[in-house]
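Hi U.,

Before I forget, here's the chain from the pilot set. I'm dumping it here mostly so it's searchable later in email.
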Amino acid sequence: MTAQLDFTDRVVIVTGAGRGIGRAHALLLGSRGAAVVVGDLGSTTDGSGVEAGNPAADVAAEIAAAGGKAVAVSSDITTEEGAAALVDAAIATFGHLDAVINNAGIVRAAPFREVPDEEYQRHLDVHYLGPMRVLRAAWPHLLESPAPRVVNTISQAMLGNPGMSHYGGSKGALFGFTRNLALEGLEAGVRVNAIAPGAGTRMAEAAADTLSPEIMEYMRTQLLPEHVAPVAAFLVHPSCEVTGEVFNVAGGIVNRLALVNTTGIHDPSLTVETVAEQWDQIMAITPDAIPQVVAPAQMPV
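Structure:
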């Protein structure tokens, strides 16, 4: 059996940590000795406003009541000031910063033609520019950590989901950001990965129109936020050296999501007709044509 992994003296920022999956991340890390910056603005699920209450403070209090260390920050990560507030709190309260888990998110399911420009921008602000701004503020401090780690939260929706062009598109942007930042952080020892979680949270409820009632009931009862947190926690532990990877996590299932290149064809005199004739070979993923996993160290220029 692997010895219990210890997070003592690790300082971790978790955004969107007031509820759902982010709360599970924060509680687990806090129970394992990490000092947690609990970030949550308390926004509505679609990001159009802020709800009553202070979920960040509630979670920080829960961690402290269990004997852990936490500080709450209710700031807007879509602004430079709000993103920097999380980092400032980490340094002011705990003296350093070791890891960031970008979990904050919004969602509203709607057909492509019904989504206005401002909603696309809102999703990009929260899912892509928000994590970028948090990490831009955090980066100098992460470089001072002996084992800096970053986990971004993407979604299977980036691969296609009805009514999710705005949500899935913004998560796809974060995926690209993750892969590029993993390369940039490689020499400095910053490990940057992503998870694509599935859980029956209030955000899942907000997207319920895109799922069958049976799937929603399964998510509510079987796919719990607590199933996701162990993977995020491992990815911010000093012993985890993987970088540039994405992991699907739901209901106790964990697997790697990998980009692949098929064997395809090679024809210097390529014509439209050749493409048409060889289309099956271009598309084929077969045992005798094993796809090459595109890892950060192999990414094409």
